[in-house]
Specification:
By secondary structure, the chain is mainly α. The protein is 44% helix and 10% strand.
Length: 128
């Protein structure tokens, strides 16, 4: 499969982007179809279609049946495939980082009164 075909399959819909983000933010986690649907807020019928497309380009891999709270019996699981060839560029597209300077943060809270503590959180680590 060519890179063009892979990119074409990756960005077919906003639901696909939600599912991509879920897998990339939880690379070691195995998800069932039901948990993907619930966590990404994508209908189960759409999840089935998107998983098929992502599996074809080797973005995800099927895992042996797992038992979860959603499916007490055995259920097929899906996990991000770390050997996916476009991981680094995809992370750059899905998780754009534009860090704030200390001055920008202070400017945003300038007129809020006396502040004792500011905690800034988010995806700050750029690790590929």
């Amino acid at each position: 499969m060519t890179i063009s075909e892979t990119i074409g399959k990756l960005f077919g819909s906003i639901d696909r982007v939600k599912i991509l983000r879920l897998f990339m933010m939880n690379p070691g986690t195995v998800f069932t179809k039901a948990s993907i649907s619930r966590r990404s807020k994508v209908p189960l019928s759409t999840v089935n279609r998107e998983l098929r497309a992502l599996f074809e380009i080797h973005f995800i891999r099927a895992k042996v049946p797992i038992a979860t709270e959603d499916a007490p019996g055995k259920s097929k699981g899906w996990q991000f495939d770390p050997s996916f060839s476009l991981t680094a560029p995809l992370k750059a597209l899905i998780f754009p980082t534009a860090p704030f300077t200390k001055e920008e943060i202070l400017k945003k809270f300038k007129n809020t009164g006396k502040i004792k503590l500011i905690i800034v959180a988010g995806v700050l680590k750029k690790e590929l």
